[in-house]
């Protein structure tokens, strides 16, 4: 796993690995990827992926309003908010 | 009167006979938890609310509910309204949910009393409860040894006799393996039996909630309450649940139990093999018949699981971004910086590893080879089970290749060592099948567990087989000495 | 220059369901921040989505109307990326198996009808809103909009210029409002589009590099943004530069497009099927119900208007072109039978006022009842058409009914022969020179006398009566 790939997936996941741990984590990732690479040995021609163990379909709900909004509690849980909004460092488009 | 190590039935009797009031029981439980706090099995205690509830129960009319007034511990993965829920992670160390998980709500509606939230592997990722932000949980059988994971806190709380039962969650074995390492019973039901609403998601297509208790019967009592369709969970089954206690006493003469050919037990510790053989013999005397079955693709279980679970978790954990709840880093330059610092500070190493693996498995160019491939192999594994279940009623394996081990002795160099703990348990999560672990003796003085895997929606059958085993043995009655704590 | 323009449009249509796509929070516009937000919309740990069937029904109606293939089994996928108004860190959308595949929309161009092919249309949830300039140093997040159902409709790159793009968007607007799929309110964000624009030398088989202009929310801006972008790209290419593939925003103040900062880094969305939702299956019975309850579209309405209301084809077409106007018209027909006059007023006078204020009739103070009343009063000669116009202006400004206005201003038409004759007599008496001139042959002076009568009656005299009696009196 090259440096570039590691950097890209770290960025996609918005994670930063400490310098002192970087090598170990990279080695771990390589080991795990090698392990899961073992799947290539299994023949899956014409096999549909199984995304859920349930062979069933979604039931859908009616278009009727039912609110469980708790605005104050939602905003309170945020590290930075005011009485109306969640706040983040200003984004420049 | 000591309440330690009592089962639900025993506590129910004490309450009904007024030998103890609900309030006294709750207070005693909290005292016990406090005395045994070196176990580190609780993250947050629910003292005030639990005592309040116990008082109300004492004053109310007697109900038919078996669980009324019974103290339970809830794994800290379930959202509990007003009560801190952390998933044993720094990133949620201050999170107070505004709602309660359905599974917990059902237990509480049945009258049970939530004593506290139990410690676990961070975000349920682990097999030893060594990745918690709040420190390791000790195995009540041996200090400095792991209780198993990820539901280590729940297993330890039950094994140490603090509570008669607790809730756990199982994505790759996280109920069954700690149950085995702690000498208690734990069951993962069929995928979709128990609602996942309020259960903080790790791997959505694998996660299931279930009980840990001192016996199969007590597990059945909890699972009866926890199960059922929930319209808030699209993946929850809309199938009638029968009372699991109705058939739990059925004789098992003629029961066909499968032994998986491909699980070569010859590689395991000889004592582990011996326990397995002993249990086999016991089942034979009880009338069961053993048949060798083949699950040709079973060796793919671990790589399949470790492609799918990290992929789903990498997405499920994206919501932990420091914006609306949880830990937010200080002094960040812009939004991206806020995300990167909050998440890097908030997550532990194992969680980061899994998120990165998952991100990789889903990324452009690798999706087909890893995630999609794994889901295809998953179907092969499920098909294998379906075929095998044509000739047997259930299957039997050891729950874990080994027993509890010392802190830090596994996985430090190579993470795969710990992943292999789940060798026998993982496949039932992939196929969505129910499975139970019951204690069946000791290996080098530490508990060993026996696993029974059932067919789709056949929790009743594995509970029945487990219960009959327990009626004819005493392993589940063993208690740790607790001298070290 | 021999340049060819290639445009593809992605339209985001907010569905007019009462609740969101995956939660039962209200979708009502304009509510106080973060109140139309359920646990699910907040992306809290442990929450799970659940599907709103009405969103599917609306998407299917659209698909049927454009002659598309409906995938009765469709799948939701996760699109993973980080942004402040995306609470879960992923958007639930449809990638591999969308609900609608194919279809066509006809647009009117100056060269006749052109058919634009639709690639696909799928359901997805909208994100919340970020407000960047209200709080110093912060961006504020409002999740009211998060989770609102969107139908994303992707056209083939077959649109050839800005005017066609506008025609396409207008046709889309008419279609979705007619189908009751969306309220099409662009100022509220119910209909917005992204335009993919590229240019190439005529005859060049290769497509040029395209840029994406995001979130355009008015027909005017569609035209301006595309025109600017095309000019910009052509200039770059003519200068020997290369067009960069990027995402851009249209700045309506400066009338220019510029690159979007947050899209600087190429994103790998890592799509995978949503494990919390299972495949959605629409039954044959549900499909039949949708077909049986299909709303009347513009062409059918036109036909009905000419047949049932006796309107001219021209009038019928104009009224039917906007569902809002058509609905208003039909409501009014419940209270007046003079359909032709009603249509005239709507298309002419009222149309002009609405255009000036750039509003729809249902955003004005007019009501079908009041308009019907106005038509009736003109019809039964209570007031003249001319007075009717000033009454209308008052109605439009205040929302009062014609009767109220007539009453308060005493505007009833004077039709009494006796009264009018009296006034005519006094006009004749006071203007003897003009009378003489008229009788000598200056016919045009007739208008002068009419004018005098009108002046004396503040315009309330019934014009036909005035004409008749004046002619008679002058003869004598």
Describe the structure in your own words:
- The complex is a heterotrimer of chains A (about 90), B (about 475) and C (about 475).
- Chain A is mostly helical.
- Chain A has helices spanning about 5-10, 20-35, 70-75, and strands at about 60, 85-90.
- Chain A contains 3 helices and 2 strands.
- Chain B has about 475 residues and is an alpha/beta fold.
- In chain B, strand 7 (about 255-260), helix 8 and strand 8 form a beta-alpha-beta unit.
- Chain B is globular and about 65 Å long.
- In chain C, helix 7 crosses helix 9.
- Chain C has 3 domains: about 5-285, no CATH class; about 300-410, no CATH class; about 415-475, Orthogonal Bundle (Arc Repressor Mutant, subunit A), CATH 1.10.10.410.
- Chain C starts with a strand and ends with a helix.
- In chain C, a hairpin with a 2-residue loop joins strand 10 (about 130-135) and strand 11.
- Chain C is elongated and about 95 Å long.
- Chain C is built from 15 helices and 18 strands.
- The mean pLDDT of chain C is about 90.
- Classes of the chains: A mainly alpha (about 90), B alpha/beta (about 475), C alpha+beta (about 475).
- Chains in contact: A-B, A-C, B-C.
- Chains A and B meet through helix 1, helix 2 and strand 2 of A and helix 9, helix 10, helix 11, helix 12 and helix 13 of B.
């Amino acid at each position: 796993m090259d440096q570039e790939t590691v950097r890209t997936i770290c960025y996609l996941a918005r994670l930063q690995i400490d310098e002192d741990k970087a090598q170990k984590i990279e080695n771990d990732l390589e080991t795990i990827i090698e392990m899961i690479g073992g799947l290539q040995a299994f023949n899956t021609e014409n096999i549909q992926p199984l995304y859920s163990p349930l062979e069933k379909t979604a039931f859908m709900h009616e278009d009727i309003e039912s609110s469980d909004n708790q605005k104050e509690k939602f905003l309170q849980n945020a590290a930075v908010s005011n009485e109306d909004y969640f706040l983040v460092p200003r984004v420049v488009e | 009167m000591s309440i330690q190590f009592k089962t639900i039935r025993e506590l129910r009797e004490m309450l009904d006979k007024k030998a103890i009031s609900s309030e006294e029981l709750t207070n005693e439980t909290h005292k016990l938890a406090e005395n045994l706090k070196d176990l580190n099995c609780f993250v947050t205690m629910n003292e005030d609310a639990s005592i309040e509830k116990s008082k109300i129960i004492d004053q109310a009319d007697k109900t038919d509910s078996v669980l009324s007034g019974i103290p339970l511990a809830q794994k800290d993965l379930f959202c509990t309204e007003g009560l801190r829920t952390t998933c044993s992670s720094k990133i949620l160390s201050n999170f107070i949910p505004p709602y309660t998980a359905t599974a917990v709500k059902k237990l509480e509606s049945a009258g049970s009393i939530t004593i506290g939230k139990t410690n676990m592997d961070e975000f349920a990722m682990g097999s030893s409860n060594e990745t918690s932000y709040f420190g390791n949980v000790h195995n009540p059988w041996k200090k400095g040894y792991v209780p198993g994971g990820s539901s280590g806190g729940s297993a330890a709380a039950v094994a140490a006799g603090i509570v008669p039962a607790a809730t756990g969650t199982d994505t790759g074995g996280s109920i069954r393996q700690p149950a085995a390492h702690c000498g208690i019973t734990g069951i993962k039901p069929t995928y979709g039996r128990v609602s996942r609403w309020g259960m903080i998601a790790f791997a959505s297509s694998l996660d299931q909630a279930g009980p840990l208790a001192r016996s199969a019967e007590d597990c059945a009592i909890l699972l009866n309450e926890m199960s059922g369709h929930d319209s808030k969970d699209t993946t929850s089954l809309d199938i009638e649940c029968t009372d699991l206690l109705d058939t739990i006493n059925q004789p098992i003469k003629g029961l066909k139990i499968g032994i998986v050919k491909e699980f070569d037990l010859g590689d395991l510790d000889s004592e582990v093999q011996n326990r397995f053989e002993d249990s086999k013999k016991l089942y034979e005397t009880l009338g069961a018949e053993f048949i060798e079955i083949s699950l040709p693709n079973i060796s793919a279980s671990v790589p399949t699981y470790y492609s799918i679970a990290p992929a789903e978790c990498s997405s499920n954990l994206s919501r932990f971004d420091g914006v609306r709840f949880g830990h937010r880093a200080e002094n960040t330059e812009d939004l991206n910086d806020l995300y990167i610092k909050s998440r890097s500070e908030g997550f532990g190493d194992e969680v980061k590893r899994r998120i990165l693996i998952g991100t990789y498995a889903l990324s452009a160019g690798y999706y087909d080879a890893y995630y999609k491939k794994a889901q295809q192999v998953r179907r092969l594994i499920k098909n294998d089970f379906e075929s095998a279940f044509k000739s047997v009623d259930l299957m039997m394996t050891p729950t874990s290749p080994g027993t509890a081990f010392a802190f830090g002795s596994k996985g430090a160099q190579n993470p795969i060592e710990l992943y292999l703990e789940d060798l026998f348990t993982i496949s039932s999560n992939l196929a969505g099948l129910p499975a139970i672990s019951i204690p069946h003796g000791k290996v080098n003085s530490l508990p060993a567990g026996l696993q029974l895997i059932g067919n789709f929606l056949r929790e009743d059958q594995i509970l029945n087989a487990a219960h009959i085993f327990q009626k004819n043995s005493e392993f589940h009655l063993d208690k740790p000495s607790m001298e070290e704590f | 220059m021999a340049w060819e323009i290639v445009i593809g449009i992605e339209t985001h249509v907010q569905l007019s369901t009462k609740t969101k796509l995956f939660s039962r929070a209200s979708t009502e516009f304009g509510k106080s921040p973060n109140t139309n937000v359920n646990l699910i919309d907040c992306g809290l740990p442990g929450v799970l989505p659940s599907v709103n069937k009405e969103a599917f029904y609306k998407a299917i109606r659209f698909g049927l109307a454009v002659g598309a293939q409906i995938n009765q089994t469709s799948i939701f996928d996760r699109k993973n990326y980080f942004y402040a108004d995306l609470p879960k860190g992923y958007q639930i959308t449809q990638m591999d198996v969308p609900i609608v595949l194919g279809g066509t929309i006809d647009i009117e161009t100056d060269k006749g009808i052109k058919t634009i092919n639709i690639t696909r249309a799928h359901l997805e949830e909208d994100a919340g809103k970020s407000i960047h300039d209200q709080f110093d140093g912060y961006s504020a997040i409002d999740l009211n909009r998060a989770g609102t159902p969107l139908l994303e409709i992707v056209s083939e790159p077959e649109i050839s210029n800005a005017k066609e793009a506008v025609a396409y968007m207008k046709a889309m607007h008419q279609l979705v409002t007619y189908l009751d799929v969306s309220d099409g309110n662009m100022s509220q964000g119910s209909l917005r589009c992204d335009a993919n624009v590229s240019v190439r030398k005529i005859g060049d088989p290769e497509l040029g590099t395209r840029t994406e202009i995001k979130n355009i929310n008015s027909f005017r801006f569609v035209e301006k943004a595309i025109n600017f972008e095309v000019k910009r790209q052509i200039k770059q290419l003519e200068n020997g530069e290369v067009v960069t593939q990027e995402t851009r925003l249209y700045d309506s103040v400066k009338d220019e497009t510029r690159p979007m900062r947050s899209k600087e880094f190429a994103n790998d969305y890592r799509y995978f099927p949503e494990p919390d939702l299972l495949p959605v299956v629409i039954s044959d019975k549900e499909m039949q119900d949708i077909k049986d309850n299909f709303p009347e579209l513009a062409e059918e309405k036109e036909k009905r208007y000419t047949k049932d209301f006796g309107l001219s084809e021209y009038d019928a077409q104009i009224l039917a072109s906007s569902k809002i106007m058509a609905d208003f018209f039909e409501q009014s027909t419940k209270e007046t039978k003079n359909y032709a006059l009603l249509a005239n007023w709507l298309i002419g006078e009222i149309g002009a006022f609405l255009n000036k204020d750039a509003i729809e009739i249902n955003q004005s103070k007019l009501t079908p009842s009041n308009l019907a009343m106005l038509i009736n009063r003109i019809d039964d000669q209570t007031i003249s058409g001319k007075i009717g116009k000033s009454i209308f202006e008052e109605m439009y400004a205040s929302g009062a009914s014609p009767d109220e206005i007539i009453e308060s201003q005493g505007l009833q038409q004077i039709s009494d022969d006796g009264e009018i004759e009296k006034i005519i007599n006094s006009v004749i008496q006071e203007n003897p020179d003009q009378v003489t001139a008229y009788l000598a042959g200056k016919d045009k002076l007739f208008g002068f006398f009419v004018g005098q009568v009108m002046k004396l009656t503040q315009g309330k005299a019934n014009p036909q009566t005035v004409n008749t009696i004046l002619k008679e009196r002058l003869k004598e």
